[in-house]
Structure prediction request, 93 residues.
Amino acid sequence: MDKDHWGDPEVYRPERFITETGMLREDDAFLPFGLGRRRCLGEQLAKFCLFQMFAGVLQKFRLVPANGTGLKHSNVEGINLAPKPYDIIFKLR
Prediction:
């Protein structure tokens, strides 16, 4: 959430993290699994499980905002950042 580094950290922009070819862009300010000796041992398992779960959901459902409202990215600040609650509808494909 460093405004000096990201400019507008509260705005969701995937191009910050993904190159034009679809690869993960390396950035020293983005370390979701830590670094060095304290790096998370379950990083690869977590990434694999998240991919499998999300791919399965997207194969079976179409995600639609509830009541025609848009999905705007914003955070609830505290010890950890968390997205604000929003409603979506899972429609079968």
The chain has a mean pLDDT of 81. The first strand starts at residue 61 and ends at 65. The chain has two helices and four strands. The two ends are 36 Å apart (CA to CA).
